[in-house]
Amino acid sequence: METENSEELIKLGGNIELSGFSEFKDLNNVVMNKIISNNVKKCEDVSENFESLHLRLKSIHGDNGKVELHAKAIDNGAIYTSEIVDRNLYFALDTVLKKIKAEIEHKNSKH
Fold first, then answer.
1. 74-103: per-residue pLDDT in tens?
2. Close Cβ partners of 93 (under 8 Å, ≥ 6 residues apart)
3. Burial letters for 84-108: b for 16+ Cβ neighbours within 10 Å, e otherwise?
4. Which of 1, 61, 87, 96 is 20 to 30 Å apart from 110, CA to CA?
5. CATH number, residue 84
6. In terms of Cα–Cα distance, which of 73, 79, 83, 57 is closest to 5?
């Protein structure tokens, strides 16, 4: 399965999709999967009906190894987005997912 940008789509579980990650061959998938799964669990704990998460990664060429990471989560029909640019992918993953969790938590605390 491919996205419109011909990026390989990787599925983790039933509701998590990653695109752009296949070009980063030197990633430690165990660490990456642990960061994602721990943060998704936290999002599910504060959400009403966590439906899906899509993470899109791309390298910023010519910018000292920085990566751009976009996250989009859907909870009970509401869309939450976050993005970050950083040199450390693991830090970027953790940060972008914590931002999503905070947004979901904030919205659901208003109910």
1. 999 999 999 999 999 999 999 999 999 999
2. 32, 35, 36, 39, 55, 69
3. bebeebeebbbbbbebbbebbeebe
4. 96
5. 3.30.160.100
6. 57
What pLDDT is stored for residue 7 in this prediction?
Answer: 65
Quote the pTM value.
0.86
DSSP state of 22: G
Which domain covers residue 65, as residue numbers? 9-109
Question: Is 1 among the domain residues?
Answer: no
**Overall number of domains in the chain:** 1
| Residue 76 to residue 74: CA distance in whole angstroms | 7
pLDDT for the residue numbered 12 = 86
- Which residue ranges of the chain lie beneath pLDDT 70? 1-7, 25-27, 63, 111
> Torsion angle, CA of 13/30/55/47, rounded to 10 degrees?
60
**Own/partner long-range contacts of 1-9 (Cβ < 8 Å, ≥24 apart):** 7/56
